[in-house]
Records
---
Amino acid sequence: MSAKTVYLVANGDLRPSANRTCWPAQAEVEAAVVRAVEDRGFAVVRGHAFDPIKGHGFIDGQRAGIEVFRQIPDDAPLIVVEAVWQYSQHLMPGLLGHRGPLLTVANWSGRWPGLVGLLNLNASLRKAGRPFDTLWSETFDDDLFLNGLEAWLDGRSVDHDRSHARPFEAVAISPILSDVGRSLGQTLRRDKAILGVFDEGCMGMYNAIIPDELLHPLGVFKERLSQSALVAAMRDVTAQEARAVFDWLLDRGMRFALGSDEESELTEAQILEQCRMYIAAARIAEEFGCDVIGVQYQQGLKDMTAASDLAEGLLNNAERPPVRDKQGAVIRDGRPIPHFNEVDECAGLDALVTSRIWTALGFDPETTLHDVRYGQSYGGGGEERFVWVFEISGAVPPAHFARGYADAISERQPPMYFRLGGGTIKGVSKPGPIVWSRIYVEPDGLRADIGIGEAVELPNEETERRWASTTPQWPMMHAVLPGITRDQFMAQHCSNHIQVAYAPDETSAQVALSVKAAMLDELGIRVCVCGDFNDKVFALNVPTRRLVEFSDKAAGQRSGPRE
């Protein structure tokens, strides 16, 4: 084979319907990448053929991936092109054994979320310690892509600017904020916490699994639960109990886009099934003493019951329909039972930490993960900003909407992914300051990136346009991350997911970020503070009395009885 030959592979979904639907977009992106490579004097060999019977040319399983890599020379330059969501497990056996240079490439599109798949694959490779370079593009003729491609084809690394990420030790944090965070970390380590994991490993997200030996020193332990146990517990929920949850939501003003066709529309029966799941999940969390829980759903439960998203969003909300245990007591009344979507354990650990901090500071404790789905600049002249589309399949707590449940509508999940239907909790996240974060795994241990952001309000027509170009059934946050460009974020961020929580005001967001950084550092997690933040707040440029109150609350949590 010529020294100027590059191999190309394309990874896809486990679900045949998704692979068939998304194949035309993948073929278009591949053609653009191949043209760019060939224009630079290289030949491209596709490592696997289009399958006319399946109707697509994706690697669609782990065994298929192993067989594909048997046919690719071990030392050949290799490009992974992603225009869609992909299951990284299909590629990991081949990529970890491949010795040649590796480049991952994604399209920049909301409808065809290659960038979401790319972030997952990149995070999985970083967890495994497998070196790679990465690029993304909307048109594949821009300077970032072409210059990066030329560097990689020339045997050089593709360098991205990551100057927005500062190690925590380089940031001066005030002693009182540090004390609050470290005291909360010490409390967690001493008193312990449980992550309830309903079937580990979802959607090929190897990056979302935290090895037990990294969790235990933090005082965090997994309770491994079965999704079949969740289905069994749903059967024990009475029709009256499920109906009471549905009626509670209607009384709060939540709307449901109901129809009669089970295959394509949201039906009342699907909603009632989701209400059963909410009740069952809360009861299991209480039975096993889980501080947070995560349901996988996408594989396994998708063939058994309606989508988990409505249940997930309700669990994440402090104000939620009451669920009673076997003794008749309301389970954790007035408090969330934090849920980590798609059993992303990194998000689960983050939700646990966030919930502890926000509660100690007296802030609204609701938190959720989102997909880093897409983003575009918006506005003109000096008002132009890059506004991200953070969008997840329905697990957003209604407290993140301006009017709570009254701003929420439930629409049927797309049949392509959700055969048995079920509704989301759709809405637009309210404007306000947020703290964003991501805990992730690298070969040397746990790390975290955190920063200050802002959820902004866009005109309704722009919101609808963004929904139409992504997944219109899902809740969305318009997010701005000050001090971080699109490409800086893509180069540094180590997941397809991002965790967000609101703060009452900008100063409170800075305080919460400071405390969170200190708590994570106390737990032994290496922290980077990303983007713009107020160094004066880190140095205690806020009322001392207020922080003393925060510190007293933290001390009370540390010494008081466990709820």
Note: Confidence is low (pLDDT under 50) at residues 539-544, 557-563.
---
Amino acid sequence: MDYDLVVRGGLVVDGTGAPGYRGDVAVAGERIVEMGKVAGSGRTELDADGLVVAPGFVDGHTHMDAQVFWDELGSSSCWQGVTTAVMGNCGYTLAPVRADQRRLVSINIERAEDIPAAALAEGVPWTWSTFAEYLDAVDALPKGINYAGSIGHSALRIRAMGERAFDSVATEDDMVVMERELSDALRAGAMGLSTSRNKGHTTSDDRPVASRAASWDELTRLISLIGRESSGNFQMGGDEGATIDEHLRRLQQLAISTGVPVVNNTGDPNAIPLFDETVTRGGQLWILTHCRGFSVLQSFRSRLSFDFLPGSEWTHVRSRPLEEQRTLLQDPDVRARLVHAAHHGTYKPISSADPFEPDFEKIFTMSDAYRPTLSVAEEARRRGADPVEIMIDTALADDFNTIFVQSFWDTSARAFYAQENEDKFATLLRNPNTAMTFTDAGAHQGQVSDCSIQTHLLAYWVRERQLFTLEEAVQMITQQPAKVWHLRDRGVLAPGYAADITVFDPATVAPEIPRVVHDVPGGASRLEQRAVGYQATIVNGQVFTSGGQPTEARAGRLLRSGKA
């Protein structure tokens, strides 16, 4: 028998956690049709000897809602073995929206998700009013990878309430509009509803984003509708004014009372008992996890914490072209003023997406993309210098290409890799109620987000530390996120499943150090992160990347809830 494609002789790790085995995967059209020892030949044959053949990775928490319109590839996710990205998280979507509300939807997204206003204006066609029409627009695009999307609570409120969405409680008439739009979106294939009550999420005109003005009763009513009309889920980021325990207890009650699967961003190992308890009481409560400390990336070619020292010497220096900055940074008097301002100035970041006030014990030079390195403070002590000067000198020596990583963790980011913390996170990642998928890809363009966490998992936790088997790790980034978003024919290699396949070298797979690229509509730059060790990704039966480079194939599809 002849097939369209046969991936031959690799270590098949099917995504279920079952032991890997040497075998072949045969594809006809968009589906896997045979596995094991395949006797027939393929029109295209891929030699996977010495490589792992896994399901395409599922990037479950992204903000690609706008980028999908100007980036056919889906970078940086596509470079990390990802074949499916779920959009519409944290309440941020581009629909539903009336023509006279586009500005409100844009300002709601610009700052909180760090997507430039010019990119939204120039790169997004805005040809829709309903969420169903938005999905149709995405469906019609040429796409290298698959996309699915939830509807955002902020957009729902703006559609129903206009300007009042940012500061008012919804009326009964408002609720009727929101329920109608949500119901229509679910019928059109929305994966569910998302919201944010994160106090750091603000609009570009300095207001709380629209979803933060909603009452808990409003949320409960909308989520109850999901439970009545669909199998969709509810995703939430943050809970302003509530402790972590109060927040999680609310979510537990919501999951049990409505029957709706609840997805939470709190990747805290201490929350495991509550999540397990929720399941025993008949609810579904998922934790989205990371496999490294949350962080922001900064560089002289993008943004620095020091850029948020208004009126300081840094404002003067950073307003100049890079070559002029080079000269100024080498001037001893200028440098002394920069160091003083960095230590004694008042930092005023505009949003939670910005590099925040520096803690030099938590800032690391990214000389290695996945192994821990010395902090800037540690390096300064080693050299007997000031940490600000270390950052300046390092950047000058590397033509400003150096990337600095600042951790969000309360202790040194390197402490994340201490044995005690590693053991805690290994327990979290192994829990059946977690999914290792929280990249924010498509947002925070100046800091890359954490788009390479799938690759980091394979490079650091599997190869370097050997705390997980390949089978365990692959399941975390394939079957688990596919379960969360009910992607019933993705995340596993089996006959009848979609032929989304990632082929990688377990001995070399690793993230690369990010680089600045200039490809955002409106002229803005962004950080892009690629990877090594991926031999191929196959999307719906077609080879999309080969040897780390894209092919001409654009077989990605829009995946709708309840449909294959």
Note: The first strand starts at residue 2 and ends at 12.
---
Amino acid sequence: MSVGPGWRRMLRLPLGKRALERDVEDELAFHLAMREDKLRRLGLAPDAAHAAARERFGDAGRVREECLAIDQRHQREVRMREWLESLWFDFRYALRTLRRMPAFTAVATVTLALGIGATTAMFTLVDGILLRPLPYPQADRLVRVIQSYPEKGLDTWGLSQQNLAMYRDRATDFAAFAGYRAGQVTVRAGDRPERLDVLLVTADFFRVIGVGPAIGRAFTAEEDTPDNNTALILSYGTWQNRFGGSPSIVGRTVDVDGRPFHVVGVMPRGFAFPRPDVDAWVPMGLDPLRGFGFMNSGLGRLKPGVTPERAERQTTAIMWDWARQNRGAGGGVPVDPSATRMKTIVRPLQEVVTSRSARPLTVLLAAVTLILLIATANVATLLSGRAAARQREINLRTALGATGGRVVRQLLTESVALALLGAATGAALAVVAVRAFTRSTLATLPRITEVRVDGRVLAFTLAVSVASGLLFGLLPALHAARGRITGDLIAGQREGARGPSRRVNDALVVAQLSLSVVLLIAAGLVLKSFQRLTRLDLGFHPEGVTSVALPLPGRVGGSAAELRAFVNTTLERVRAVPGVQSASLAWALPMEGGANYDGYLIEGRPVPPGGNEEQTFQIGVSPGHFKTVGIPMLLGRDFAPTDDTTSINVGVVDETLASKYWRGTEALGKRIRVTGDTTWFTIVGVVGAVREDDATLPPRPHLYVSLPQVGGNRLSLAVRTGGGGSAAAAIDGVRRVVAGVEPSIPLDDVRPLSSVVDQTFATRRLTKLLLGGFALVGLILAAVGIYGVMSLSVANRGREFGIKLAIGADPRALVRLVLGEGAVLAGLGVVLGIAGSIAVTRWLASLLYDVSPTDPAVLVALPLGLAAVALAACYVPARRAARSDPLTVLRAD
């Protein structure tokens, strides 16, 4: 007997495809029969009535397909609605179940919150820094252009203004091309001078970047010419903070380095390039004939369809043409460039901005993924224990007719509900952690101001929570659904925890331990590397030294007599300040940057073939500089006050340079010069080697020259304080002294030299701290996991232990038994973890200094420590088993 379509719809019985087709055909046949019957009653013959009914009805096939599509769509909607209703009922039941188990729910929620929260926070950083496109229109077409000349020791080489004009005019792969370099200016907008960090740019810069001023206009080509570059575009923050957000700022004249500049625009709020701390943009004053000064970078916007590799080939060809045309001339090279590795380097701007942070952030994201897996395994262990305890309930539901799939769905819904609780808590923790991090001194990563928890991050959190809920709930749910109904209904729930359940729990604990070993070893390697790096001899002693930036006005830096008077007067007065032990002036202090980097030639030695001369840092310093910053004098003498423009040009080299050519005192009296200048300097001393920029690299050659002889516009004052006085009071006294000598110098860039050193290690320090914290969390979760498994094992084997104690077993033997089982799990986890670490930690090689990725001490000591913690976690359940009362256990059974 078949059920009619109307009854099926009323009873909401499921319909298959064939049933739907039969229903539609029955409906069509019914309507045709009704029409045919009506026509017969009107007097038509049966055949005529049959033909007329079909003619008036229309295309029955088309109507059949339309009706079938409507029914299928309706059936899908009904099934979806029923599935959602069922899921909602399951979810509500899951919440009621979790509410009845507050201790279990709290432990599982906290565990998941740690894993999901850490993962969300780390993904927020990775997403904001690495994954999101730069905040410029069509940012994927923006590239940075620099040059490279490895034969001269210049793996990266800036562009001259001549190079900028050359690529702008001849490179057809760019829709627009501009140049830029960082700089500083002194602005006097009120009673006192202020220092601004500026970017000197060519006229097309804002067209290339795709963002123009929110107020005013961009630079014109006429403003980007020598001696006419007196326009100024302010950042939004500078406009608000230093000019009060004046609506009439455009057209205002501002004193910049003693020259009148006029403000032509204000950039939009939030615009930053290349860093958020840029206060203003100034025209470079491009001189297409200036072949020296390779301090600029190129910024290009590629034409649609052009790749960076293609643009690199084109600009390299242009560079080679320039080099051939200028062979032997200023700025050129003395050999055919095709015989060298000279080339341009064209890289996507996003890659340039994030390159130094990409590997550390990726490693940290992988580390929190391990934390999430450990937390997932931990909760899976808890759920497995709960499933064993609920085996009687589950089998009773199965006996009453629930299918295995229905039971699994209910248990998975409980797992997902638990994961969502952990995700909500973890997301809150992530928001707090991200806000705290972005406002801390550790926030030195690029694009950190763009990092935020938003809908995209929350969607990731939701996906992670659902995936983790399904992951940690699947094994316990499948095992619970396969329980033996008869045995469990008769024997209770005791047997449900044995056999497969125990093997699953053991496997989960081994997985937690092995992942924790990988985390611990990775953190140990990074920590050991950082310790060796911080103990590295930098060649100077920054402790107790304060750096004060002194941008000199043109009338002082441009006059030898004025500069000599300023240097002598300033140092004399600063050294007299109470608490100051010594002071000196230099172009730049160690690791500050700002030194000249050029090739050098030694008198009497042949010029290297092909112009492949070595490179050296050239730094102008005052007398007493080496003593102030703690660079040891090895041979000869320091600079003297008499080493000025009236005496012979003298220089001091470091031992890195001296040891290449001379032994002992042979260097003294020799002459040296840089390739960008014709002035020879007589070597009067040799000092210790100093590490610049990247401390992991060997020290590079240094040539120090007398500041009164070479001059300088931007100096750094080094002040060493001590002697029992207050360092802060001494620096305040230094400020007053300098302001008294030259009131036009801004004194807002004062910082300890040790902070400059710390800044060079910032990314490594951040990696060390976060990776160490993640390893600690993993260790705690693994210890909790093995403790939970052993506690569950002891509880489920209470009857066995009670019988053994009743027949005279030694309690210490039970302790050894439980500890032995725990030791097997710990040992297996440690072995698997070490094997995994050997394969994984090679990925850390670029983050390590003087430490092998397979360092034996780390590979052995830390896993043994984890094994000891695991055994300690097993000891409490073992003691509980040994102290159990046999009569109580057997009576309860």
Note: The first strand starts at residue 142 and ends at 149.
